Amino acid sequence: EVQLVESGGGLVQPGGSLRLSCAAFGFTFSSSAMGWFRQAPGKEREFVGGITWSGVAPYYADSVKGRFTISRDNAKKTVYLQMNYLKSEDMAVYYCNLNVYDGKYNHDYWGQGTQVTVSS
């Protein structure tokens, strides 16, 4: 059974940093691309960034490019989201994502989310 467990959220001041972690269980993590999404109150869930199985050339939404960095440790089956220069608009619940295509359908798996609050 696929399980994704996020951690690392919390309260941070504008301009501060946080690192989120997502521990993966129940699938072959080292051959899976992973993603991060976020959802602010009253808004739809939005893509933040993603990383291929090898970790080469992660890609980001324009809103976080240059401030956020995604990395992974395949030995630890963990993907990370380093968030720097946080802004109030970054405040949201952050989710780790695994998307699996079975040849016919896409299946999305999500963690429980971790809250990031940006406030002075």
**Spatial separation of the terminal alpha carbons:** 40 Å
Please tally the helical runs, counting DSSP H or I stretches of 4 or more residues: 0
Please bin the fraction of helical residues: under 10%
Query: If you average the pLDDT, what whole number results?
Result: 96
Shape: globular
Strand count, sense and barrel status of the largest sheet are: 7 strands, mixed
Describe the structure.
The chain is built from no helices and eleven strands. It has strands at 3-7, 10-12, 18-25, 34-39, 46-51, 59-60, 68-73, 78-83, 92-101, 106-110, 114-118. β5 (46-51) and β6 (59-60) form a beta hairpin.
List the helices and strands and how they pair.
Blueprint (H helix, E strand, L loop, with lengths): L2 E5 L2 E3 L5 E8 L8 E6 L6 E6 L7 E2 L7 E6 L4 E6 L8 E10 L4 E5 L3 E5 L2
A few lines on this structure:
It contains no helices and eleven strands. The protein is mostly beta strands and 120 residues long. The model has no long low-confidence stretch (mean pLDDT 96).
Annotation keywords:
mainly beta; 7-stranded mixed β-sheet; globular; 52% strand; 120 residues; 11 strands; 4-stranded antiparallel β-sheet
